[in-house]
């Protein structure tokens, strides 16, 4: 199945400062800021925001470009299928944690804003201009990576059935070094979206 099937929804290519009206600060986080056409944490802790325009169906995807990788322990998370983002923050996320010359990748289930790793962790170095992404399809979550000019490849996956709901997309950044841009995602376009029987065919098809 191809990833992603959706487009960038915000490049952040605008004046420094707040993200704008389509974004709301995530539960328990500080507000991130735009700096030089990319998004950074506003302090030494977590900053995060979610796309508040509309929730997306449970089969969804989310991705972003990492313009500046964080130092060791300075994490970036992309979130999908999140419910109650303003109060409890339940859903799934891909956490990428730089460690030395590599990065630890962990698909996490978030309950009341606290993440728990599910499935097997992956390892993939992330350089400036690389992309990270998460696909939530039924009960399978898959983490994806691509270099700036390369193709998307799967890094790791996990199976979990706790949250099978429509939800919102968002991101978090820990500490002040890492910066992201070109955030995208939405309802994934899947082969199973084709109606059955196909249009114009009878029930005997």
Quick summary:
By secondary structure, this protein is mainly beta. The protein has strands at residues 8-10, 23-25, 33-35, 38-40, 46-51, 60-68, 76-83, 90-99, 102-111, 114-117, 122-123, 130-137, 140-146, 153-159, 168-174, 179-187.
Give an overview of the whole structure.
It is built from no helices and 16 strands. It is mainly beta and 205 residues long. The strands form two sheets. Strands 1, 3, 4, 6, 12, 13, 14 and 16 form an eight-stranded antiparallel sheet that branches. The two termini are 25 Å apart. Mean pLDDT is 92; it is low at 192-205.
Task: Give me some keywords for this one.
single chain, 205 residues, mainly beta, eight-stranded antiparallel beta sheet, disordered C terminus
Task: Itemize the secondary structure elements and their pairings.
Elements: E1 8-10, E2 23-25, E3 33-35, E4 38-40, E5 46-51, E6 60-68, E7 76-83, E8 90-99, E9 102-111, E10 114-117, E11 122-123, E12 130-137, E13 140-146, E14 153-159, E15 168-174, E16 179-187
Antiparallel strand pairs: 1-16, 2-5, 3-4, 4-16, 5-15, 6-12, 6-16, 7-8, 7-15, 8-9, 9-10, 9-11, 12-13, 13-14
Strand content: over 45%
Roughly what is the average pLDDT, rounded to an integer?
A: 92
Helix content: under 10%
Give the structural class: mainly beta
Number of helical runs? 0
Q: From N to C, what is the helix and strand string?
A: EEEEEEEEEEEEEEEE
Main beta sheet: strand number and arrangement?
8 strands, antiparallel
The termini sit apart by: 25 Å
Basic shape: globular
| Uncertain residue segments | 192-205
Report the C-alpha radius of gyration, rounded.
17 Å
